[in-house]
């Protein structure tokens, strides 16, 4: 009987948090594309690459559940994600917990929508964690522009976003992989407050003690800046689509799912900035 739990995206923001809080680390197998980036010496690591089907069988051997994350650079679901889902089903995987995005059910253009449909049709049990924008995007994707230039540059105007801390997502992911009652359910995971980027900049200014301002670039300017920074075209286009939808208020929704699942309020944005203040030094 399959017993292992495979964590894809194990070295990323959310995958690391799932592993950090997981109650039985001996069950875990971390899928990594670079074995030199092992994230926790208490668990097994295995080479896995969505773009290399030869890495699928060993990663999925003896696996009962998978925490599935779409790599940001991959937008071709049919070519690189569908084969992983097929391989998981063939290997006897019972349950896939998929990190999706808020509003995906109304947005057929993003890759996550296609992935959810594939999982529903796979015959395996599924759980969809439809998360809002990560607070931690600010200390990863936007770290340089904030730390060096003192600005946040995303094309969303005055629209609001119900940011969520990845520590909360990781805790829910670990529960969904180990506890009953989560299978074949979709959850919309948000923080408890919806903030615009002017408020985000003001809070960061207050906590960090240095001026952070929000600049509101046009969409073409944002795309050019991302490509100039070396970000992949597929990633840039997906983010552009999400920010365009954010302008129309799709990211402002605040739900109770995070608090209900954790039994406590979500981490507030100010607390996140205080905890990660070293990231922008």
SSE inventory with pairings:
Elements: E1 4-7, H1 13-21, E2 28-32, E3 44-47, H2 56-60, E4 63-68, H3 77-80, H4 82-90, E5 95-101, H5 111-121, E6 125-131, H6 143-147, E7 151-153, E8 160-161, H7 166-178, E9 185-189, E10 195-196, H8 197-208, E11 213-215, H9 219-228, H10 233-247, H11 257-262, H12 269-275
Parallel strand pairs: 1-2, 1-4, 2-3, 4-5, 5-6, 6-9, 7-11
Antiparallel strand pairs: 8-10
Helix pairs in contact: 1-7, 8-12, 9-10
Describe it:
38% of the residues are buried. With 281 residues, the protein is α/β, with parallel strands linked by helices. The model has no long low-confidence stretch (mean pLDDT 93). It has a 7-stranded parallel beta sheet with strand order 3-2-1-4-5-6-9, sandwiched between helices. A two-stranded parallel sheet has the order 7-11. A two-stranded antiparallel sheet has the order 8-10. It is built from 12 helices and 11 strands.
Mean of residue pLDDT values: 93
Number of strands: 11
What is Rg? 18 Å
Secondary-structure-based class equals alpha/beta
- Return the string of H and E elements: EHEEHEHHEHEHEEHEEHEHHHH
Concise summary:
With 281 residues, this protein is α/β, with parallel strands linked by helices. Helix content is 38%, strand content 17%. The termini are far apart.
């Amino acid at each position: 009987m399959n017993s292992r739990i495979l964590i894809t995206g194990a070295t990323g923001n959310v995958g690391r948090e799932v592993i950090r809080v997981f109650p039985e680390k001996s069950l875990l197998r971390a899928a990594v594309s670079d074995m030199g980036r092992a994230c926790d010496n208490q668990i097994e690591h295995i080479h896995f690459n969505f773009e290399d089907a030869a890495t699928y069988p060993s990663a999925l051997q003896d696996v009962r559940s998978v925490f599935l994350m779409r790599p940001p650079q991959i937008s071709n679901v049919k070519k690189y994600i569908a084969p992983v889902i097929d391989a998981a089903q063939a290997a006897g995987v019972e349950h896939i917990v998929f990190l999706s995005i808020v509003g995906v059910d109304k947005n057929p253009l993003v890759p996550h929508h296609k992935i959810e449909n594939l999982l529903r049709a796979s015959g395996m049990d599924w759980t969809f964690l439809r998360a809002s924008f990560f607070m931690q995007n600010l200390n990863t994707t936007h770290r340089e522009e904030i730390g060096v230039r003192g600005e946040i540059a995303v094309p969303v105007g005055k629209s609001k976003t119900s940011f969520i801390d990845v520590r909360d997502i990781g805790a829910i992911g670990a529960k969904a992989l180990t506890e009953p009652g989560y299978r074949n359910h979709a959850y919309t995971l948000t923080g408890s407050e919806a903030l615009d980027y002017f408020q985000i900049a003001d809070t960061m200014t207050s906590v960090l003690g240095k001026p952070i301002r929000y600049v509101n670039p046009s969409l073409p300017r944002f795309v050019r800046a991302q490509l100039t920074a070396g970000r992949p075209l597929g990633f840039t286009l997906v983010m552009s689509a999400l920010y365009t939808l954010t302008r129309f208020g799709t990211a402002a929704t605040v739900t109770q799912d995070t608090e209900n699942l954790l039994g406590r309020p979500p981490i507030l944005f100010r607390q996140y900035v205080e905890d990660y203040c070293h990231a922008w030094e």
